[in-house]
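$ run holo --ligand "zinc ion" --emit tokens
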Amino acid sequence: MPASPAVKTSPDLIARLLDLSHQLGREDRKLAILGEGNASARVSADTFIVKASGSNLATLASAGVTECRLAPLISSLDAKGLADTDVDERLVAAQVDATAKKPSVEAMFHAWLLTLPGVNFVGHTHPVAVNSILCTKHARTFATRRLCPDEIVCCGAEFVLVPYVDPGLKLAQAIRRAVVAYVKRIGRAPRVILLENHGLIALGGTPEAVMAATLMAVKAAEIYAGGVALGAPRFLSAAVAARIAGRPDELYREKMLGLR
Ligand SMILES: [Zn+2]
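-- output --
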């Protein structure tokens, strides 16, 4: 696939990001419609590519991808009291090519997440099944308890849960706070971050890992909702969840599935 002149990165990386975006935007999967959601990929230690504002995941083309510098967006996370117009200016200033389309305001959290160890791709969606839980009092239980081993293999022993805040800078700051606390407590980077009343972010070394975490989180949400509808769901114990998360054969399986 030819690269847009606006994007200076390798056509292969753009093709992988476009394919991930098309997978995430597939209408039958009910993960994102219209301009919902976004996806990104790390190009180097300095830059990343991300869906531009207003583009559609399902039909994303290379002209709808923008390359941005990581550092100015990440340093914005330490800023206090920025107005929406200041945030907008910083987003435009971070673009490698000023004539390219403006990145989504959610590029702020993509930038920071792409600096976590082992994270090369990020996919953010608003799945119906997951949001059905994130818009209820069940969000915390769904984030911290596990019902099936494969949920642990693809999504980790727990999800990060971020309380609802305004999308944009405040959300990026809240995500950073919640992920830092998660890493301190669990001792490894998360696979999936849940945003209350908003959606899901999947992180991975490959597009396949992002897809696996997204689809498995959706499946887990459907199982959780089914369990609640039938009665009290029977959760795996914390000890069992921790054991599966660290088992050598499961680590091997994660590797074979392209999740590591
Ligand atoms: Zn969103």
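-- notes --
The longest strand covers residues 199-204.
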